[in-house]
Amino acid sequence: MTINWSEQRILIFAPHPDDETLGCGGLMHKAKAAGAHVFIQFLTVGDTADLSPKGFSTAHERYAEIKEVADYFRWDDWHVAFPGDEYHLKLDQVPRFELCNAIERQSPLSIANLKPTVVLAPHRTSYNQDHQVTAEAVHTALRPSNNALRHHPDVVLAYEEAADQWRYEASASPNLLVELAEHDLDAKIAGMRLYGTQIHDHPHTRSELTLRSLAALRGMQSGVALAEGYHALRWLA
Q: For residue range 83-98, what is the model confidence (pLDDT) as tens digits?
């Protein structure tokens, strides 16, 4: 079964700027080329201590990176739901009720406002607390109910990042594989390079070689050269 990407309204939930590219960069490029609409709902962004020579990246730097990446991938829109250091890397301290309300109906890019056909979110097995609560909040916001009363996307997928495997209960291999052309993967790498504060040299989970290697592995598992892996949570055919 294949998806006609040209007909889709895709809403991607990213805990932080770069998660959408790490998990869905190839799919974003493939879908936009086909004519899809792509929206990115970031949950939070703030100043970040890191392993760069400077030792930190500022929220101002990261907003500048978002704008470059948005232009590169030609996103239809993007938004940050909980900006600022009081939320960044602290989403596990925000009540689930507030997170779910933003995702479900209060954000400009909420499920109720956009009525997406495809929703993508991080996988709950990530070691990162912001990723975990984002995954759980999206899961709650998309709970089963009467489709006449609440919008239900036809397809709900959890995307993977290489770092997600660093858990003793790491998830099983993805059960949905999206084939990528070489130019889709090249676009994913190019988009990640625009996140200059976040990409690293190998060996690192956010290195170019890691992204290429994971794409080759997922491609091999589906009998093609390159692919991105996803976990299907809902698929209405």
A: 999 999 999 999 999 9
Q: What would the two tokens of residue 147 be?
A: 């489709």
pLDDT digits (tens, 9 = 90+) for 142-176: 999 988 889 999 999 999 999 887 777 766 789 99
What does the domain layout of the chain look like in residue ranges? 7-235
- Alpha carbons within 13 angstroms on the beta-carbon side of residue 127 total 8
Give the number of other Cβ atoms within 10 Å of residue 51's Cβ.
7
Containing H/E element for 176?
Answer: strand 176-179
Whole-number pLDDT of residue 51 = 64
- Collect all residues with Cβ–Cβ distance below 8 Å to 232 and sequence separation of at least 6: 155, 156, 157, 175, 176
The residue among 80, 25, 77 whose CA lies nearest residue 215 is 25
Q: What is the pLDDT of residues 67-77, one digit of tens each?
A: 999 999 999 99
| Assigned architecture for domain 7-235 | 3-Layer(aba) Sandwich (3.40)
* Residues 64, 58 contacting (CB under 8 angstroms): no
Burial readout 173-210 (b: 16 or more C-beta within 10 A, e: otherwise): ebebbbbbeeebbebbbbbbebbebbbeeeeebbbbeb
Q: From 234, 40, 31, 232, select the one nearest 147 (Cα to Cα).
A: 234
Q: Measure the CA–CA gap between 196 and 64, rounded to whole angstroms.
A: 10
Residue 120 in tokens: 């993508």
Model pTM above 0.85: yes
Please, are residues 186 and 146 in contact by the beta-carbon 8 Å criterion? no
d(CA 157, CA 154): 10
